[in-house]
Design goal:
Layout: H1 8-22, H2 28-34, H3 40-71, H4 76-97, H5 111-120, H6 123-135, H7 138-157, H8 159-198
Helix pairs in contact: 1-6, 1-7, 3-5, 3-6, 3-7, 4-6, 4-8, 6-7
Length: 199
């Protein structure tokens, strides 16, 4: 019974960490650009596909992340260091360029690639999911993934209104602000991993 209880502080920490990495607000201008040539119905299908695919990807790694680490003989501490470095690179790219992916693509299949992967459920989100699985608990991580996916779906439903409110400049500022938090999470992962080997 005790093991099934939810640690609310750990759940909140997992939600915040995953939310800043998934960064649906910062991705608003990118998603608007990717779907500008789609009809309203096509855009809705693309957004629905993005939510479903990203949810499946994150849940797969939440359920099987530890198994994959064991299969490849990787310790969670090494994964924290590697994942932290990866998150740091992503954060620096966003801080410099304002986005994770800026290449022009055709609208076909945009919901799965690049919206779901690598923009929403990219390397950073997958890394955060696996690491949080070790730091918190299984139930908290699953709830965090579902919560962030739900928030992301709400953002996508009201994406045009959000873009109008934020504007291009506001969206760019939001993306860079999130990048600072991503960098902070990255440093925390790296420090925790290094500390284990030195102690």
């Amino acid at each position: 019974m005790e093991a099934a209880q939810i640690e609310w502080q750990a759940l909140l920490r997992a939600i915040v960490a995953l939310f800043v990495v998934v960064d649906p607000i910062g991705n608003v201008p990118i998603f608007i650009g990717l779907t500008k040539n789609l009809s309203p119905a096509q855009r809705s299908r693309a957004f629905r596909s993005a939510v479903i695919v990203s949810a499946i990807l994150l849940l797969i790694f939440a359920f099987a992340g530890q198994l994959l680490l064991t299969l490849f003989g990787i310790s969670i501490h090494s994964f924290k260091i590697a994942g932290g470095l990866l998150l740091l690179i992503l954060a620096m790219k966003i801080l410099i360029s304002g986005s994770w992916e800026e290449k022009t693509i055709t609208p076909e299949g945009a919901g799965a690639v690049p919206m779901a992967f690598p923009l929403l459920a990219g390397p950073g989100a997958i890394t955060t999911t696996i690491v949080m699985l070790q730091i918190t608990g299984f139930v908290e991580v699953i709830l965090a993934v579902l919560s962030v996916i739900f928030i992301t779906s709400v953002v996508l439903i009201f994406i045009e209104r959000i873009y109008i409110i934020l504007g291009e400049t506001g969206s760019s500022v939001a993306a860079r602000l999130m990048a600072v938090f991503i960098a902070a999470i990255a440093f925390q992962f790296i420090i925790e991993g290094i500390r284990f080997y030195f102690t």
